[in-house]
């Protein structure tokens, strides 16, 4: 994407001298076009349409947000449009200042970046600045990447231009510092971001004050901070404050810290049993403490080796370093596992591993993280994030061969890192100390989303050597390219201020990354070329870094990508696998459907299955929600379709191994919770924490199903209250009942019809479908080849019953939804190219009737398409027929009168198999609960009432984009 002529030539581009940041003389970047066309703006290459955005709380029907006539590309989903309009458009709704188009939003951000880049001499010429603007706009417009939410909230507005989502604070052992902590944390929460800090400098309750009394200890001060966070969350409205509290394992109060949330869980049980409302969001839950933070214990290698050997471990005084007491390391470690098993806290952070990869140790140790655990750097610092949509780089050729477009990926990473670094030039920060540190070290956090979807689409199981190799290769290429661009920027606008002091350490860490890349295992035709590109990038990093230094102390992390993942229409967030194979989707104009993820047919194609087999397997998934016993699917391929929830789930160690595969190639860490089944034991949790250390991860958190007592607001309570409100008063007059009787509408003597011969599983038959002259299907006659057989008699009776129902007004789509996927013999292959497989004769009959008599939108919602439409979807991602596939005039002449022959205009990028979503479902999590009969442990969204889903260490609402985290 971008080139510079500093150092050995990369493309032989010209350079321009100029004054860089800090008065340094540098050479501007030459920007090459990758996606855009000279003389044409990216906005002119897409089809725009107007949408109405009306978002409601499904529990009470109240309208949360409404803005009509907003402008978006026609390829954007309803969900992405809703979330961007409601969360990112600036200006009061209903005023001329309100943004109404995605163009305005992107222009507001991109033009600010361009102007800052020109002001600080990043570009070789105005022409390069214009190409930068166009390429950045194209990538955002086409959902190739996204900046984190604060960029969309603040950049280009009159308010402070805060671009960072992640913050780390510090606190010392003084009352003044503790009160500053409360204030600084509150200001960050007020702005919608999150912060973390380490409390280990505060003296323990087992130590003395200078006055002779006992210190309060960090746990007591956590109460005040927790109450403050809860109050700001309540006043600010829609989500809990995001915060992380860390305590070192050698702190004398570590046991009290470990037990804080466990004791509060016991309080919840007692109060609940006494009749108090302890549901999450209930009236009485606020009496429970320590619920607004994620807690983590920071362990070191000395402690972990003592755990392995069963030795003693010293807890030391904060001021003197003297041993306060010795504890059994294994017993303390088990207490951590017991607490995490009971209530998911504390998580664990591996201090020596973290600081082994620290690029700036001479400026201070890394002692804490942001709330989601992906950003780890100096105290009083911040990180702005951006994430790439990996599915945008998966290529399929005409022969079905897949490849990851490493060359284009490199160019987009270069573009994004350049933009992210420019943002620090104009960014505002919530405190003076954070601003100073961030400008001095320029920490960036490029990452990605949709890894789970990419792995499935390429036929890789999430928990497999091949899947881990591809994930590691992509991560290595991303970080290597980022640091190479950072070194190139250092030649133009200078290295970060703290680089001179930390040069040796920074280059040592670059060598560690490069060695890990060299040692990584190559697996197949997909990951090997990516590893090769990554190796080249790391060689450039080592060479250019020693020559130029680096512009950024940190380059990459793997964040939850909650709201921005929905903005990019990603199926999976961050490094997470698919939640389930079937998900929930909103439709233009209202309504919803359940769809089989688009990645499933891609995966089946990659694994060598024929189109008719793919169709049958997808139909099975649509009905059952899993691949178990899917027709024709080899059991050895089941693991490819394993998900976070459902019939077949990824093992806890599968999650840890994936984190370990990516971790050596990240500057920071990974936001991820290891989900564990309810049958998991304390020993299982302890083993996860131990293996996380051995495998080299930087931080881990676990969640055992159904371990939390405080559950989401009860839908049963809500329903009971609604039912109670609807009950008429005892004294009210009885409601008058008006009886309605349907009237049969008979067909005329002469009626248009279609006779179709068919074969299903070897059984032959004929179907005659007659229609009203102007009002659709009116009767069906079914004849089987063996006259007088029981099957033929039942088909005669069945066809009469259906025909009478149609004439009394039963909609055909009702019959189709009820009888498709009904299974009995005969079943199997058919002679109909549009319905290649049928699970019974009834299944075939109603699929054929739907294709002949229902309009496209209706049958598409039921997951019924012609062969031409399915082929087009595999090739283009859209079911919409091309001109060469559909002769409208011929169809209108031959079709029965009353058949809708208008050209179909489907939803863009509709997934493989669709059917109307159950009315009770409002998100993928709720849909999965209904399919599997389970209860997902996730809170309800405070904004719209839908059940959220995991995104890294946080929760994400698919309905409105709200998150419980900081990104």
UniProtKB/TrEMBL annotation:
Entry EC number(s):
1.17.4.1
Question: In what ranges is there compositional bias, type Basic and acidic residues?
Answer: 906-923
Cofactor(s) for this protein? adenosylcob(III)alamin
Output compositional bias ranges, type Low complexity: 1-12
Where is the secretion signal located? none
Q: Which UniProt keywords apply?
A: Cobalamin, Cobalt, Disulfide bond, DNA synthesis, Nucleotide-binding, Oxidoreductase
Q: Molecular function (GO) terms listed?
A: cobalamin binding; cobalt ion binding; nucleotide binding; ribonucleoside-diphosphate reductase activity, thioredoxin disulfide as acceptor
Q: Which reactions does this protein catalyse?
A: a 2'-deoxyribonucleoside 5'-diphosphate + [thioredoxin]-disulfide + H2O = a ribonucleoside 5'-diphosphate + [thioredoxin]-dithiol
Q: Which GO terms describe its biological process?
A: DNA biosynthetic process
Q: Where is this region: Disordered?
A: 1-27, 713-735, 895-923
Which CDD domains does this chain map to? RNR_II_dimer
- Lineage, top-rank taxon, reads Bacteria
What region holds the Ribonucleotide reductase large subunit C-terminal domain?
Answer: 164-703
Bias (Gly residues) ranges = 14-26
Family assignment? Belongs to the ribonucleoside diphosphate reductase class-2 family.
The job of this chain, per UniProt, is described as: Catalyzes the reduction of ribonucleotides to deoxyribonucleotides. May function to provide a pool of deoxyribonucleotide precursors for DNA repair during oxygen limitation and/or for immediate growth after restoration of oxygen.
Please give the name of this protein. Vitamin B12-dependent ribonucleotide reductase
From which source organism is this entry? Streptomyces xiamenensis
Source taxonomy lineage?
Bacteria, Bacillati, Actinomycetota, Actinomycetes, Kitasatosporales
């Amino acid at each position: 994407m971008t080139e510079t002529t500093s150092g050995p030539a990369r493309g032989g581009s010209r350079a321009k001298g100029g004054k860089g940041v800090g008065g340094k003389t540098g050479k501007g970047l030459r920007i090459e076009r990758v996606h855009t066309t000279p003389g044409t703006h990216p906005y002119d290459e897409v089809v725009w349409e107007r949408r109405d955005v009306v978002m409601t709380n499904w529990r009470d029907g109240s309208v949360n947000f409404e803005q009509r006539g907003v402008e978006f590309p026609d390829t954007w989903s309803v969900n992405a449009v809703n979330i961007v309009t409601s969360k990112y458009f600036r200006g009061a709704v209903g005023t001329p200042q309100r943004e109404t188009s995605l163009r305005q939003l992107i222009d507001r951000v991109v033009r600010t970046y361009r102007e800052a880049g020109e002001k600080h001499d990043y570009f070789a010429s105005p022409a390069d600045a214009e190409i930068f603007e166009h390429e950045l706009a194209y990538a955002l417009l086409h959902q190739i990447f996204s900046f984190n939410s604060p960029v969309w909230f603040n950049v280009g507005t009159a308010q402070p231009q805060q671009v960072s989502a992640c913050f780390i604070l510090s606190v010392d052992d003084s009352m003044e510092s503790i009160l500053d902590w409360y204030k600084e944390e509150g200001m960050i929460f007020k702005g919608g971001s999150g912060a973390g800090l380490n409390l280990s400098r505060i003296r323990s309750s087992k130590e003395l004050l200078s006055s002779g009394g006992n210190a309060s200890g960090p746990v007591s001060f956590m109460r005040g901070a927790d109450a403050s966070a809860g109050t700001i969350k309540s006043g600010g409205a829609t989500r809990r404050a995001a915060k992380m509290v860390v305590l070192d394992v050698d702190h004398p109060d570590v046991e009290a810290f470990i037990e804080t949330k466990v004791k509060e869980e016991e309080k919840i049980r007692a109060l609940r049993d006494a009749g108090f409302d302890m549901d999450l969001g209930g009236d009485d839950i606020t009496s429970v403490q320590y619920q607004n933070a994620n807690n983590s214990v920071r362990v070191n290698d000395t402690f972990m080796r003592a755990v392995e050997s069963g030795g003693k471990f010293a807890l030391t005084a904060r001021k003197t370093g003297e041993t306060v007491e010795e504890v059994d390391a294994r017993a303390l470690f088990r207490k951590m596992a017991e607490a995490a098993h009971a209530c998911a806290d504390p998580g664990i952070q591996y201090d020596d591993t973290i600081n082994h990869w620290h690029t700036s140790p001479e400026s201070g140790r890394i002692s804490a993280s942001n709330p989601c655990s992906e950003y780890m750097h100096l105290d009083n610092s911040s990180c702005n994030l951006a994430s790439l949509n990996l599915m945008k780089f998966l290529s399929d050729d005409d022969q079905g061969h897949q490849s990851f477009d490493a060359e284009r990926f490199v160019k987009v990473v270069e573009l994004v890192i350049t933009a992210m670094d420019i943002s620090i030039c104009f960014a505002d920060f919530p405190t003076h100390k954070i601003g100073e540190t961030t400008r001095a070290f320029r920490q960036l956090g490029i990452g990605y989303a949709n890894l789970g979807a990419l792995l499935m689409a390429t036929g890789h199981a999430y928990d497999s050597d091949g899947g881990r190799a591809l994930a590691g290769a992509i991560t290595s290429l991303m970080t290597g390219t980022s640091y190479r661009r950072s070194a190139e920027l250092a030649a133009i606008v200078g290295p970060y201020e703290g680089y001179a002091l930390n040069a040796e350490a920074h280059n040592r860490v670059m060598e560690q990354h490069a060695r890990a890349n060299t040692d990584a295992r190559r697996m197949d035709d997909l990951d090997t070329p990516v590893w090769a590109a990554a190796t080249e990038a790391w060689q450039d990093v080592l060479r250019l870094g020693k020559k130029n230094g680096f512009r950024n102390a940190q380059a990459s992390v793997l964040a939850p990508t909650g709201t921005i993942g929905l903005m990019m229409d990603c199926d999976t967030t961050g490094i997470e696998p698919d939640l389930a194979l079937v998900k929930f989707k909103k439709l233009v104009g209202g309504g919803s459907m359940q769809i089989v993820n688009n990645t499933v047919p891609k995966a089946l194609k990659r694994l060598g299955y024929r189109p008719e087999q793919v169709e049958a397997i997808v139909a099975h998934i649509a009905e059952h929600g899993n691949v178990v016993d899917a027709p024709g699917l080899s059991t050895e391929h089941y693991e490819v379709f394993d998900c976070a929830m459902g019939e077949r789930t990824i093992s806890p160690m599968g999650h840890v191994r994936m984190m370990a595969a990516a971790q050596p190639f990240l500057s920071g860490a990974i936001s991820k919770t290891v989900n564990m089944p309810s049958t998991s034991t304390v020993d299982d949790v302890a083993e996860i924490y131990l293996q996380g250390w051995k495998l080299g991860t930087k931080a881990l958190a676990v969640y055992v199903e159904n371990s939390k007592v405080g559950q989401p607001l009860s839908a049963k309570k809500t329903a009971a209250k609604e039912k109670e409100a609807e009950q008429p008063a005892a004294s009210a007059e009885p409601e008058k009942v008006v009886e309605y009787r349907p009237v049969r509408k008979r067909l005329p003597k002469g009626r248009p019809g279609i006779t179709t011969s068919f074969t299903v599983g070897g059984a032959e038959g004929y179907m005659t479908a007659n229609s009203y002259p102007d009002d659709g299907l009116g009767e069906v006659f079914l004849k089987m080849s063996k006259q007088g057989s029981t099957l033929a008699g039942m088909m005669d009776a069945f066809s009469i019953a259906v025909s009478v129902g149609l004439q009394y007004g039963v909609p055909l789509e009702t019959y189709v939804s009820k009888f498709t996927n009904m299974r009995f013999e005969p079943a199997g292959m058919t002679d109909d190219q549009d319905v290649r497989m049928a699970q019974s004769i009834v299944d075939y009959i109603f699929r054929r009737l739907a294709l002949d008599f229902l309009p496209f939108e209706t049958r598409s919602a039921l997951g019924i398409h012609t062969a031409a439409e399915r082929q087009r979807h595999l090739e283009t991602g859209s079911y919409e027929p091309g001109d060469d596939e559909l002769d409208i005039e011929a169809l209108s002449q031959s079709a029965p009168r009353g058949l809708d022959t208008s050209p179909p205009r489907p939803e863009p990028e509709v997934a493989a198999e669709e059917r109307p979503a159950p009315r009770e479902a409002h998100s993928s999590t709720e849909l999965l609960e209904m399919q599997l009969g389970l209860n997902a442990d996730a809170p309800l969204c405070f904004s719209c009432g839908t059940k959220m889903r995991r995104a890294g260490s946080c929760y994400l609402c698919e309905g409105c984009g709200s998150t419980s985290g900081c990104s």
